[in-house]
């Protein structure tokens, strides 16, 4: 243990990019496995709660634990937010198989006309 502390104090400013790269790749791999599980098990009732309100089925619990262990907490929160945002956008844009035809109808601006008499 003393040798490790001596090495760390001697090379305090040295960045081990290979270690950082391997940790990042492990994080991405566990993230992808967890979100693949979410997609695969999407027909099952979600019973577990993750960060930012993400719900997932119990079948993905082990993969979630791996994801949380391999990634920084701030990354997990970021990836959960990103996944929720992408699912929300997909759900909003999905028209249930019907194709949209014609121009997109936008709400017309509201014109306020004051009444001429007092009530």
From TrEMBL:
Q: Name one Pfam family in it.
A: COX6B
Ordered alphabetically, the record's keywords are: Disulfide bond, Mitochondrion
Locations listed in the record: Mitochondrion
Q: Which InterPro entries match?
A: COA6_pln, COX6B-like, CX6/COA6-like_sf
Q: Which parts of the sequence are annotated with region: Disordered?
A: 94-119
Q: Does the keyword field hold Mitochondrion?
A: yes
Instruction: Say if the entry is tagged with keyword Calcium.
Output: no
Which stretches are annotated as coiled coil?
Answer: none
Predominant localisation class: mitochondrion
One GO cellular component this record assigns the protein to is: mitochondrion
* SUPFAM superfamilies in alphabetical order: Cytochrome c oxidase subunit h
Q: What is this protein called?
A: Cytochrome c oxidase assembly factor 6
Q: Which organism is the protein's source?
A: Citrus sinensis
